[in-house]
Write a structure and sequence with these properties.
- This protein is mainly α and about 100 residues long.
- The protein has 4 helices and no strands.
- This is DOCKER Lobe C domain-containing protein.
- InterPro entries: DOCK, DOCK_C_lobe_C, DOCKER_Lobe_C.
- One of its GO terms (molecular function) is guanyl-nucleotide exchange factor activity.
């Protein structure tokens, strides 16, 4: 539980607490955006690390949910599967075919 005095909309009455809440919300959005961008850039060997980043992000948002209020950002991220991009899929397929010989 927090020691915040909330108004009828669930927002802090104290101006500085509300400013902090908005900063956390903005930081959380930037983290979500960075995770999504990272997911587009990673290789197959980084999938476990990406899963761990997402897990830690969700822990972060859950711990601050009472302060920030519920957002759709973390809900979208929870259910978003890690997807391999086309170049990664092609690289994995080529690796599965065996070594590449020089021509």
């Amino acid at each position: 539980m927090t020691n915040m005095d909330l108004d009828e909309r669930g927002k802090p009455r104290d101006r500085l607490q509300n400013k902090l809440r908005l900063c956390f919300r903005d930081f959380s959005k930037k983290c979500s955006d960075a995770l999504n961008k990272n997911e587009q850039l990673i290789q197959a060997d980084q999938l476990d690390y990406q899963k761990e980043l997402k897990k830690n992000y969700l822990d972060f948002t859950n711990q601050l949910s009472e302060i920030m209020g519920s957002t759709r950002v973390e809900q979208k991220l929870v259910h978003a599967p890690i997807q391999l991009h086309t170049h990664t899929v092609h690289a994995l397929a080529a690796a599965a075919e065996g070594p590449v010989s020089n021509v």
